[in-house]
């Protein structure tokens, strides 16, 4: 388990892409092995992304199938070390338990 979309500069250099028109429903569920970074409990996790856009997506939180288990996830969109990335026009209300958008560091954008 983990984010539906995960881009990290640790795995590859990510630049010039668009994430648009998606329905993110309960991604990032906690797995048996704890996440290395608590922010991986999210729909989208971006680290080291440049010149990109995230727009016109919807996000929601839920429990396991049948309504059991613990509601997840904690964060909607998490960005770390981004540059020239635009986040706009997303429906995030009710899309995360703790924070809808987390910007940890940003050069501009």
Brief description of this entry?
The chain has no helices and eleven strands. The protein is an all-beta fold and 109 residues long. The protein has one domain.
How would you describe this protein?
The chain is mainly β. It has one domain. The protein contains no helices and eleven strands. The N and C termini lie far apart (29 Å). The mean pLDDT is 86.
User: How many strand elements?
Assistant: 11
Helix content: under 10%
Please, how many helices? 0
- Termini, distance in Å? 29 Å
What is the domain tally? 1
Task: List the topology elements.
Layout (H helix, E strand, L loop, with lengths): L4 E4 L5 E2 L2 E3 L2 E3 L16 E6 L1 E2 L2 E3 L2 E3 L14 E6 L5 E3 L10 E5 L6
Provide the descriptors you would attach to this structure in a database record.
109 residues, mainly beta, 3-stranded parallel beta sheet, globular
């Amino acid at each position: 388990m983990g984010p539906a979309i995960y881009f990290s500069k640790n795995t590859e250099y990510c630049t010039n892409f668009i994430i648009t028109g998606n329905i993110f429903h309960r991604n990032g569920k906690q797995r048996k092995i704890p996440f290395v970074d608590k922010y991986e409990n999210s729909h989208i996790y971006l680290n080291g992304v440049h010149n990109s856009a995230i727009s016109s997506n919807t996000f929601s939180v839920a429990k396991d199938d049948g309504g059991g288990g613990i509601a997840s996830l904690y964060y909607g969109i998490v960005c770390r070390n981004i540059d020239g990335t635009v986040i706009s026009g997303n429906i995030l209300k009710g899309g995360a338990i703790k924070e809808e958008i987390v910007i940890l560091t940003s050069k501009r954008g």
